[in-house]
Write a structure and sequence with these properties.
single chain; 31% strand; alpha/beta; 10 helices
């Protein structure tokens, strides 16, 4: 990955509003063909970074390079953007919407619109008005709209919002396919499981400052194999030696206290519940996210 061409380079970017530092001295790069995760809690500064990448906001200091050049008007047509705040023309049909948005980028999008609608399972709805679509369907059309002009750099802000598991997989597969085709993709989302499955590297911002940056495997390895992934049946209670328990019913993530013997924990668990799966692992990205934000 390190030898790959860099599409985006951000150098020491800072931005403040009314004297408050929203983004402070941020640096990272995104490589051609990479699916890259920009993560952080609400209000951390992610949207400000995205708006600076789109040239909607200008940084107070620092520099953004796209394909080794500073941002210019020609750069804008290289970018596809799915905003978190959705907005489609409710009275237009699906097909009319996509052709119109393609024309704004000076593209004849008829053939590409049909191909993308087919791929997203939406071709039978092409003549429906946007207002007649469900929230999940509108989300899929919005995603298609963001890539209708075949951009090289794609920014997707909460792309999985409002999608059921089947459509989530459709969107995820398409994003991965776009990356394999050489597109550079930045995803900003709160769904850490999707980030963990899709992204090769991440940048995490908290309170305006970069706190994690690198490959997911490398970041997880920093936290050590101190986590038990448990699939079980029964009533799971607190256990000495477990400092944190993320219990989701029949699945739990148990964080071990330093020096705790996992075999002792297994024996206690076997007497307490029916153990279907017991695996020592690094913590999930979701757990790391929580620990970083909480400062633990």
């Amino acid at each position: 990955m390190d030898k790959m061409e860099k599409t985006i380079e951000i150098f020491r970017l800072s931005k403040s509003f009314n004297g408050q530092n929203v983004v402070r001295d941020i640096s990272f790069d995104i490589k051609k063909g990479e699916v890259f995760g920009l993560i952080g809690p609400n209000g951390a500064g992610k949207t400000t970074i995205i708006r600076m990448l789109l040239d909607i906001l200008r940084p107070d200091s620092g520099e953004i390079m796209i394909r080794n050049a500073s941002f210019c008007e020609e750069t804008k047509n290289l970018i596809g953007y799915l905003p978190e705040e959705r907005g489609l023309y409710k009275k237009l049909t699906v097909f009319e919407t996509l052709l119109y948005l393609g024309a704004l980028k000076e593209k004849d999008s008829k053939e590409r619109a049909g191909m993308l609608l087919e791929k997203m399972g939406m071709i039978t709805h092409k003549d429906k008005k946007i207002s007649d679509l469900s929230k999940g369907m509108q989300q899929k059309i919005q995603i298609i709209a963001s890539i209708i002009h075949d951009p090289d750099f794609i920014i997707l802000d909460e792309p999985f919002s409002g999608l059921d598991p089947v459509n989530m997989k459709l969107v995820k597969d398409m994003i991965i396919e776009l990356g394999k085709a050489g597109k550079t993709i930045l995803i900003s989302t709160h769904m850490m499981e999707q980030v963990e499955q899709m992204c090769s590297r991440i940048f995490m911002i908290n309170r305006g400052k970069g706190v994690l940056y690198g490959s997911i495997d490398e970041i997880k390895s920093r936290y050590g194999k101190n986590t038990i992934l448990l699939d079980f049946e029964g009533d799971l209670k607190n256990i000495s030696g477990i400092i944190k328990m993320n219990n989701s019913g029949n699945y739990a993530e148990l964080i071990l206290e330093s020096g705790t013997d996992s075999q002792v924990i297994l024996k206690i668990l076997a007497e307490m519940v029916r153990v279907n799966k017991f695996e020592m692992s690094t913590p999930s990205l979701n757990e790391i996210f929580i620990q970083v934000v909480e400062g633990t």
